[in-house]
Amino acid sequence: MNLIIQGLDVNNSDLRALAKLSQADGIERITGQAFRLINAVHSNDISEYCTKAKLDFAFVNADLKLVDFKLIAMDMDSTLLAIESIDEIADMHDIKSQVAVITLQTMQGEISFEESLTRRTALLRGLHYDALQKVYDERVKLNPGAEKMLQQAKLAGLKTMVISGGFTFFTDRIKARLGFDFAAANVLEIEENRLTGKVVGDIIGRQGKAQVLNQIRDELGIKREQIIAIGDGANDLGMMTEAGVSIAYHAKPIVRDHATYAIEYVGLDGVINLFK
Fold it and tell me: What's the CATH class of domain 68-273?
């Protein structure tokens, strides 16, 4: 196995210490923030060291390459984007604090996503449609490294997909802006240019995300092992389970505990650095 070390500030002393702890044969520089320790041996001391040093680490099969994958799928809110879009919509309705509490409960797995979205969307009833565009124009912000990650994935021949428990208003625009191959999300019901507080059709929640991912997998004729899935909240666990490699990005503990790898400190481009 290779040990991938990433961080906003990686010191040579950290690399030497980790190489010793892991009995690595050598150290390779991937980027200024990422390094590969060759032929490393797993040790619990490594996790403790990296936590104290605020470094991301991952033991990765030395033969695993980015081109071995065919699809990279990711959550939108708080994964691809640095915001929770429904919370920002709620802010336009002066109820952000109410909605944010429900959002947090959902991400921590305390209530089902379907119940959560139903409750949060109901609170948006009466909001004018123009507020959605205002949120997109003024508040949508990509997480660090997002564009670089997508660019490198495309160059390696991977298809890209955003699967959101949020709304198509945002995923449609993000898909066009970043050139995603696929996008899926929930549809807000609009009447006379105002939100009714309801969602059209079945809610894409934890199981819905898994179903959408499997549908695209079958359309592409690829295997589970050829999929990378990235998420941060409990409602992402369904699609992450259906992927060969799952990555918890700045995620809740319940997601980190179930993911193949976790990224806590660096940006989304850290995903690419895991693989040759």
Answer: alpha beta
**CATH numeric code, 2-63:** 3.30.70
Is 77 tagged catalytic? yes
pLDDT, tens digit (0-9, with 9 covering 90-100), for 39-76: 999 988 999 999 999 999 999 999 999 999 999 999 99
- Given the residues 14, 77, 232, 236, the one annotated as active site: 77
CA–CA distance from 102 to each of 17, 20, 108, 129, 186 (Å)?
43, 45, 10, 22, 17
Whether the model clears a pTM of 0.85, i.e. scores above it, the answer is yes
| Residue-range domain boundaries for the chain | 2-63, 68-273
Q: How far is CA 259 from the centre of its chain?
A: 11
Tokens of 205: 């929640």
Told to judge if 56 belongs to the known catalytic residues of this protein, a careful annotator would answer no
* 26-49 confidence digits (pLDDT tens): 999 999 999 999 999 998 899 999
- Catalytic one of 14, 56, 75, 87: 75
